[in-house]
Each structure stands twice: as C-alpha cells, then as structure tokens.
Write a structure and sequence with these properties.
Two copies of one chain form a homodimer. With 200 residues, chain A is α/β, with parallel strands linked by helices. Helices cover 40% and strands 14% of the residues of chain A. The first copy, chain A, is built from seven helices and six strands, in the order H-H-H-E-E-E-H-E-H-E-H-E-H.
C-alpha cells in the first residue's frame, strides 16, 4: 500500500479511539490529509489545549479546567447532595438534564469481581472522606442500571451508611418518549413498582 | 454546562470530521480528556506529522510524503496505463485490490451542473498534459457508477480521445460475494450486458 507513512500513523492513532474502526479512521485521516492544513492545525491545537489545561478534580473526579473545579468551587451549587456516577461522561449527561444543582463524585469504574475491579481501584476512599462531612445529607447513587452498577451502589450504601445521610437512586421506568410496546419486561416491572400517584 | 472550555473546543473540532456527530465527538473528546495525556500527545503528533510531510502530488493528485510521489516516482509501475479516480480515497481502495500496477490521476471531484462543478474546477488540464505523452496507451475511467461519475467519464473520453489511447471503464455487475436476490435491477442489467464467456 502506497499510503504515506504519516497518514498511516494518523490512521493508527485515530483507530484507537472508541467506536472508530480501521475504515472510519482511514476516511478521517484522508479527510484531514487532503483538506487545508489549518484543519489539521486546529484539531492539533485543540488536543494540545486539553492536554495543557484539563485534568480530573482531586475531590470529585470530574473534569476541570485550570486549578478550580467548575462544580466544587461553585458556591451556588448545593453541597448537601452528591450524585455518584461511574464516568465523567455521566456528569455531562446529568448536567444536560439540567435537573440537578448539587455536586458530583466520579468513581472511575464499577465493581466487578469478574473483570477484577476491586473497591480499592475506584475512588471510594475519597468518597468516604467527603461523606464524613455532616453537611452532606443525601447521596444519589446514579450508577448505570446494570448488574455491576447495582452491585457497586449496594456496596456504597452499605459501606458509607450513617445517621443523617439519605441514600437514594435514580428512578427507573419507561423512558420519556418511549412506547410500552418496546419496553422490555424488566423495565416494565420496575416502572410498575415505581408507579407514582397522579395529582388531579 | 460545566464542560471545560478546552474540551468543548475539542468537541467542536472533532464534530467537523465527516461522519462524526455531536454525540460521538463528545464521547471521543471525553475519552481523550480523561485518558493518559500521552494519548492526546500522540494523536496531536500524528496530525502534526501529516501537516508537515503530506501533500498532494502536483502530477497525479494522489497523496505523497515529502517531495517524491510514491506512484509517479516508482519505476516499477506501468506508466502506459492511468486510472482516473474522483478522490484520494479511491486510490487507496484500488491499491487494496492489488490488481493494478499503473499510475493514477485524481480529479478532485466530479462534474455537476447542479452543484456548480465545472470542468475548470477539476484536475482536467493536468490530465490533458499527461495524455499528450504518447507513452500513455490506456486510460481507465474509474469514476463512481453514478450519474455524475458517468457524465464525468463521458466528458473525459470525448475531450481527450486520441489515436493510440484506449479508453476503458471498470466492469459492472453483481459484487463479489453478493446474491442475485439483493442486486438491484440496474446492477443486474449491467451484469447481463457485461456477461463474460466462461472458458471450459
């Protein structure tokens, strides 16, 4: 194959990204290689800026720019409620829902005996320290609704249970805009168990 | 949204890539932002290397590294046959087929009165110059099998016809591994017209 070595290397780097296969990586690399060189430069600059300025907050584990975490250092956010999530991506999803004004705690994974993920490999010690503060009154366990997610939540609720701290989890049921016909049996069972009174 | 500005900018750059929507760009940017910083660096380096060393060959329009085109400067390739393609990506597809050892000519687009693409906007003058060389004896018109592709090939065959230059196009028919049941009527018609004698 007479693909320039530099393009081939770019294909290799791009195909390491999640959800990008060899074919897509080739298409992307070619698009970048044949386009104006400013296109390459602005993507490289953006990567550089992230490398320079973005890191995980030592306290909550969410992404922060510079030294101050946009969540932990924001006095308008309610420090009495912490939402526990698996990944930084989940923080973004929660923020998009615009339904929460408290703080976050990113675990960095889920407990999994099968895949060898033990409690010490998650940010659980940090969570314990934050919960020692009496000001925190609710912990929302927002791990994904899977076996591993539920196991992780159960572990946390047992480990960190204390007087004056409410443990909750996200509601489960039929998704907004979805149809009953397409909901699976487990989801419908959850939706029935979690049924709510309609105020007339 | 409390997404760090640098990550937001990276999302913007990534979502400019073909086939990468806002959601995928977010996933990719987060993956890069939360991962080890070497990951960011190696992708940025690969982009930089492409910017530094890769350009389009002035003669054939294919991508080349440094000053010498891997096709035009390769004496083992058959200079009597030129395959005309729309894009650099098509050169890669042809090379993968490993069925061709001649030279290429990348047009950089297809004629399209509807989208306002006139002959002067393609690399046709360059093609004319190359065909003036009597050594070139076959021009394979490998534009895509679409209305615009066929119109472009027809234009080229009329414009550059000369004594001693054979104009051919790629064979059309049922794709290798495909089933007749799933072939569309136009493809089957082409396959019938292009039927070939079986040597017993």
């Amino acid at each position: 194959m007479n693909l320039p070595k530099a393009v081939d290397q770019l294909v290799g780097e791009l195909s390491k990204l999640p959800g990008v296969g060899r074919r897509s990586a080739e298409r992307l690399a070619l698009h970048l290689a044949v386009g104006p060189s400013e296109r390459l430069q602005s993507l490289a600059d953006a990567l550089h800026a992230v490398r320079q300025s973005v890191s995980a907050c030592e306290l909550c584990g969410a992404l922060r720019e510079g030294d101050a975490c946009g969540f932990c250092s924001d006095p308008s956010r309610d420090a009495s409620t912490i939402v526990v999530v698996e990944r930084s991506l989940d923080v973004i999803a929660m923020e998009k829902s615009a339904g929460f004004r408290g703080l976050y705690h990113v675990l960095g994974g889920l407990l999994s005996p099968l895949r060898g993920v033990a409690p010490s490999m998650l940010r659980l010690a940090e969570l314990g320290e934050r919960l020692a503060d009496e000001e925190v009154r609710e912990l929302v366990l927002a791990t994904p609704p899977t076996v591993e997610g539920d196991a992780t939540s159960l572990y946390i609720s047992r480990q960190f249970s204390r007087e004056g701290l409410a443990m909750t989890r996200l509601g489960r049921g039929v998704p907004q805009g979805g149809s009953l016909e397409h909901a699976d049996a487990g989801t419908l069972r959850m939706a029935l168990q979690g049924r709510q009174r309609v105020e007339p």
